[in-house]
Amino acid sequence: MANEKILIPDLGGADGVEVIEISVSVGDKIDKDQTIIVVESDKASMDIPSPEPGEVISISVNEGDEVKEGDIILELSTSSEVEELSPSKQTQTEEVKEDIIDYETASSPPKTNTEIVLVPDLGGADKVELIEVLVGVGERVNEGDGIILMESDKASMELPSPFTGVILSLEVKEGDLLAEGDKVADLEVLVSQNEKSSKSKSDEAEQVPVITSPETLKDNEFIEQTKEIQEETKPEKKIVAQQNSKDVHAGPAVRKLARELGVDLSKINASGSRGRIAKQDLYDYVKNQVSGSSSVGNAIPNVPAIDFSQFGDILVEPMSKLHNITATNMHRSWLNVPHVTQFDEADITDLEIFRSSLKEEMKKREIKITPLAFIMKAVAHSLLSNPSFNTSISEDGKSIIHKKYVNIGMAVDTPAGLMVPVIRDVDRKGLWELSKEIIDLATKAKERKLKPIEMQGGCFTISSLGGIGGTGFTPIVNTPEVGILGVSKLTIKPVFVDGEFVPRKILPLSLSYDHRAVNGGDAGRFMTSIVDTLQELKRLSL
Ligand code: CAO
Q1: Which of 15, 65, 99, 222 is an S-S bond match for 198, by CB 3.0 to 4.6 Å?
Q2: Could you tell me which residue, 234 or 29, shows the higher pLDDT?
Q3: Region of 138 on the Ramachandran plot (φ > 0 left; ψ -120 to 50 alpha; else beta)
């Protein structure tokens, strides 16, 4: 019997890693190669196996410790059988040590040569999608740094740089479908001669089980997950699996952060392409949990997973990025904002007569004026006279931010999804200018040519379904704005005027507002102001 200290092995280039699991206890009898601890860098997790069988006498690390190569993990009482094997093992270890000494005393200048970085074995997956290119041409990378992030249906993995060097060219772009052996990049490798020879020798020494490179582990992890996907041929199995954190789409860094924060990734709304969870999604989720805990309760029950294919044929289509963002925004607003919706009707008979009188001029100017331009002017006018609607609640929920400008967003229905371009300074613009901007921005939205700045800075939103139909709906506030006006299709209704029923053009309106920022009285006054303005255009300077 002898006592042996088991040390943290070569970490494949990682400086320090975190102990995320201790897999054995003092007194445990363990086998050779049995996992003793699991460590994790920001790019990969690794099982550290025991190089010997034996009994654990003491453990020197705790979960959460940052460890580096050479740190003591535990002390093992090894059996005599193992001691017999020791000499050959010792020889191998000495070889490795020698290599390290060689490398450390090396003084030859760095030499360069070019290596081609290829997509590795994908563990059976035919193709994986390139989700993110993590480096640029000309950028220096260290061995182990991620070059690209790839993702299959359920697993994501970074392709680490095999060497320290400079990226000479990138042969791939985001969205590419990659197969094993595809060329990813040319890498100008920066190495010293001795490092190279040391490397090849230590590759031989890698038969010693204590050395496990992150690359291998990452591949293994990916292979395991890919196998799982392939095994999950039955739909009901697949749906259950989607509820597990490891089956959601997220990179290693996000996963690590989620574990640190104790967040179940399967509960997060993803905004990345193909449903990938971005770091910001995680922050938003945590923020919502913290700030919303007093108002919406601590937990929102999950919608149960259903295998719809048991009822008939189905087609599963990934949400577009835009759809995903919209869904996240709607969900965020729905959960955070106590909504109230108020309804009213505006008699726009006179407005429509006036609009008809502009028909000739519309043709001449080649600008169509729809009821929306008038509604926008009426809203701008009412925002000025009812400033509680031109506000936002500060992030900490303790202040009201009053805006001295009047920018109005309009919801545009596009083939790709909902977009909300913003028209600036509506209060200062005339009907023609406004109508032209409505047409231009709606066209740009439909052609997906809007710049980010054209969708920012809104104070209030109008969602007009007037050209489509419906008698009324309850729009969701476009946070951090505090109000949104829904416009439905005008109908001709009999209205009692001066002792008789007369046909009038009636426009249904619905106003949703954030009841934290606006009280019912203010909302009533705001809506009345919009209705009155539409009914009496002289209130506006058009
Ligand atoms: N009642 C009756 N007719 C109306 C109307 C109303 N409230 N509003 C517009 N119309 C008429 C227009 O006058 C036009 O008639 P003509 O073709 O005879 O001239 C027709 O309906 C089509 O108008 P439009 O939709 O092209 O123009 P708009 O200025 O009313 O709206 C826009 C522009 C971009 C807001 C609109 O095209 C759109 O995308 N609406 C959908 C918004 C949406 O999706 N909201 C939901 C968001 S929440 O999911």
Answers
A1: 99
A2: 29
A3: left
